[in-house]
Specification:
By secondary structure, the chain is mostly helical. The chain has one domain. The chain is about 95% helix and about 0% strand. The protein contains three helices and no strands. It has helices spanning about 5-25, 25-140, 145-160. Helix 2 packs antiparallel against helix 3 (about 145-160). The longest helix has about 120 residues, at about 25-140. The protein is rod-shaped, with a radius of gyration of 62 Å.
Length: about 160
């Protein structure tokens, strides 16, 4: 059995393992594995913590985005309402302006009609006076004619004006 190579390999392996055990390599390997396990656990905890913080930040930014969208909708609604109010106000002002201008134009037309009617009456009165004066002067003579003409002219003026 001592002549076989496998025996010497097995014996060498046992001696080597006993030497490693004596030197405490198994404790160093275990400690190294424990340290690595602790480091990995710490990294996992840190990663979990960062993930939680990222989730919180995401939620916060989503809330802020929703608030900003709501505020934007409020601003848009306010702007639309203001535009509608201004349009209504402008329409009312234009209608009032047109109504005032129409009333002013109608007043001017009425004044022009009244002036034209007065001018026609005045011209008719002047024509009637001139005609009456011609007729009366041709038919009547003397002092009586002058008095009648003056009285007739005065009567026509009073009636036509």
């Amino acid at each position: 059995m001592f002549m076989e190579a496998e025996t010497w390999v097995a014996l060498g392996f046992v001696v080597f393992m006993a030497g490693l055990g004596y030197l405490g390599v198994h404790r160093m390997v275990a400690k190294s594995l424990d340290d690595r396990s602790a480091r990995i656990r710490a990294e996992l905890d840190e990663a979990r913590k960062l993930k939680d913080e990222a989730g919180q930040l995401l939620a916060e930014y989503q809330r802020k985005r929703q608030a900003a969208e709501g505020e934007a909708q409020d601003i848009i609604a306010g702007a639309k309402a203001e535009a509608e109010r201004l349009a209504t106000e402008a329409k009312t002002k234009i209608e009032d302006f047109v109504a005032r201008r129409t009333a002013l134009a109608e007043t001017k037309i009425a004044q022009a009609e009244a002036q034209a009617a007065a001018d026609v009456r005045s011209a008719a009165a002047e024509a009637a006076i001139a005609a009456a004066e011609k007729i009366l002067s041709a038919e009547t003579k003397g002092k009586l004619a002058g008095e009648l003409i003056a009285k007739g002219i005065e009567d026509v003026r009073k009636k036509l004006n």
